[in-house]
Amino acid sequence: MAADGDWQKARLVERREETATAVTLVFEPEDWPGHLAGQHADLRLTAADGYTAVRSYSMAAPARDGLVEFTIQRVNDGEVSTYLCDDLPIGAYAEVKGPIGGWFVWRPTDTAPVLLVAGGSGIVPLQAMIRERRAAGSRTPFRLVYSVRTPADVIYADELARPDATGLETAILYTRRAPEGALRPPARIGLADLNTHGWPPDFQPVCFVCGPNGFVETAARALVALGHDSHRIKTERFG
């Protein structure tokens, strides 16, 4: 039995195309200990000549049947993301270590309102929280504000577009090109967006913000400016 935190072999059992640049990969580790929504894990690839490369990725869904799900955005000239998205075949093995992180997590026993603010592929750990809430039958109030470049860049588009019986409220904002008929013109996320689509500060929501560095800084500053308690704003960033 693998101890928590040890590297273990993981077989790729499923691949799903999410967008032209994002792919969901489902792995079956040898003995996964489980994880919380919002945590991440390390993936290690080893070439035939012994060269290894390690990257950290957020998990996109709750643990189910011992499986671990990642949604990976292809990075231009990225040796690991490109290989994972384009070349790793079903049945192949990687190594996984985790879960990692205990601050940027949501548990079904948490009852405070939740505001999820995602930029681009920053949706991944937040989608794990949405899926965990749905699987648990939780009625904790959730709102998602998701900023992307264009409609074609929306990860989990079909899932987010379906009516949600649990009352999830979703606002998708576009920075480069909005769909026809959109009331909001393309623009970067701002204070007005979070004021319109977020929770009022006096509701004392927990705010999870994930995305590129600049996005996270802008969103976190806007939330503080609106009166949210900085101690209830949890951030995770990349790039």
Written overview of the protein:
Its cofactor is FAD. InterPro entries: Cbr1-like_FAD-bd_dom (IPR008333), FAD-bd_FR_type (IPR017927), Flavoprot_Pyr_Nucl_cyt_Rdtase (IPR001709), FNR_nucleotide-bd (IPR039261), MRET (IPR050415), OxRdtase_FAD/NAD-bd (IPR001433), Riboflavin_synthase-like_b-brl (IPR017938). This protein has two domains: 93 residues, Beta Barrel (Elongation Factor Tu (Ef-tu), domain 3), CATH 2.40.30; 125 residues, Nucleotide-binding domain of ferredoxin-NADP reductase (FNR) module (Rossmann fold, 3-Layer(aba) Sandwich). Helices cover 20% and strands 33% of the residues. The chain is built from five helices and eleven strands, in the order E-E-E-E-E-H-E-E-H-E-H-E-H-E-H-E. A hairpin with a 4-residue loop joins strand 1 and strand 2. The longest helix is centred in the middle third of the chain and has 14 residues. The radius of gyration is 18 Å and the shape is globular.
Q: SSE layout and pairings?
A:
Blueprint: E1 8-17, E2 22-29, E3 40-46, E4 52-58, E5 68-73, H1 79-86, E6 93-100, E7 114-119, H2 123-136, E8 142-148, H3 157-161, E9 169-174, H4 191-197, E10 206-212, H5 213-225, E11 233-238
Parallel strand pairs: 7-8, 7-10, 8-9, 10-11
Antiparallel strand pairs: 1-2, 1-6, 2-5, 3-4, 3-6
InterPro entries: Cbr1-like_FAD-bd_dom, FAD-bd_FR_type, Flavoprot_Pyr_Nucl_cyt_Rdtase, FNR_nucleotide-bd, MRET, OxRdtase_FAD/NAD-bd, Riboflavin_synthase-like_b-brl
Keywords: 2Fe-2S, Iron, Iron-sulfur, Metal-binding
Domain FAD-binding FR-type: 5-106
